[in-house]
Specification:
Length: 313
């Protein structure tokens, strides 16, 4: 079964799925702000917006769920973000209960999919109730995935070029998710323009301040997509999808060479060859090596063992 579907929960902007859309994946973004039902985008027919209240969980047809390649989720943070801690008592336990319920819905759906996934939130009390995040990052750390003449397509007056702003963001991940390599850009320091220019409780403010950093979205796609496994007939061969695939393939080949070189170096110096040792040598995470490059590791280690066998006998 081809894994060609991406699901993004609590996602109004669809920024997270943009790279997947460009590569031809079928993407479903679910949010209460969308019109009720499942509506196909007229300009991008592989994008579907689902208006649904996720407090009631989410049930999709098996024809969709059995094809899921990736899941992202951005549950409401208003009642748990530490930036609003002084209001926690006033909001009361019901508000906290709602936020935990939405996080639980995200986690349960993502785990059931069997696909790589991330659940994103700013620094919040989710860490207390749901465990510490697996990773943290700032948007500027992935700005290098965007072009030097980049300009935000939706809110350039609020979101600086190349995501060159700080905002500590937490990720709870699973399903073999690979945290992408950082490609940072310089930022001026201080708070982001979104934080300085936007205040209040309006929906617009919340949408802009919570928008997924586009550089990070591209990086996640490059390190977690199965684009190269999609049948030729299912790929959208336009300039964007070809560019996405070329970038993905080039980065994979580069990382493969790093792993190969690290193994060869360990072998030439008679050091123990293990995934942990290779990870320390080349800077590629052990999880990524295990998920994407285990075959290469096994082949090279087998060559080493064969060489020793011939020398002995």
């Amino acid at each position: 079964m081809v894994k060609d579907v991406v699901i993004s929960l609590f996602d109004y902007t669809a920024v997270m799925v943009e790279p997947w859309l460009d590569a031809g994946f079928e993407c479903y973004v679910v949010d209460l702000q969308h019109s009720p039902g499942c509506i196909q985008d007229k300009e991008r027919p592989n994008l579907f917006r689902i208006g649904a209240d996720l407090r009631n969980s989410l049930t999709l047809p098996v024809s969709i769920t059995k094809r899921i390649a990736f899941v992202s989720a951005f549950p409401e943070c208003t009642n748990v973000a530490v930036s609003g801690a002084k209001y926690f008592i006033k909001k009361g336990p019901r508000a906290l209960s709602l936020s935990l319920d939405l996080f639980a819905t995200s986690h349960e759906f993502a785990e059931a999919s069997g696909a790589p996934y991330l659940i994103e939130n700013p620094v919040s009390t989710f860490s207390t109730y749901c465990g510490k995040p697996d990773y943290t990052f700032h948007p500027y750390e992935y700005g290098g995935y965007l072009s030097e003449d980049d300009e935000h397509p939706l809110w350039p007056e609020y979101i600086v070029s190349r995501d060159a702003y700080p905002k500590k963001t937490c990720l709870w991940t699973g399903g073999g998710f690979v945290m992408p390599e950082k490609k940072p850009v310089h930022f001026q320091g201080g708070d982001s323009d979104q934080y300085k220019k936007l205040g209040g409780k309006s929906t617009k403010t919340k949408n802009i301040r919570s928008a997924t950093p586009r550089g990070f979205a591209k990086a996640v796609f490059e390190f977690n997509s199965n684009y190269d496994k999609l049948p030729q007939k299912d790929k959208k061969h336009n300039s964007q999808s070809e560019g996405a695939y070329f970038t993905h393939r080039t980065r994979t080949e580069k990382t493969e060479q790093l792993v190969k070189s690290a193994i060869e170096k360990l072998r030439s110096t008679n050091k123990k060859i293990s995934k942990a040792a290779v990870s320390r040598e080349c800077g590629v995470s052990r999880e990524q090596i295990s998920k994407r490059y285990a075959y290469l590791f096994d082949v090279l280690v087998l060559k080493k063992n064969t060489f020793i066998h011939l020398c002995i006998y």
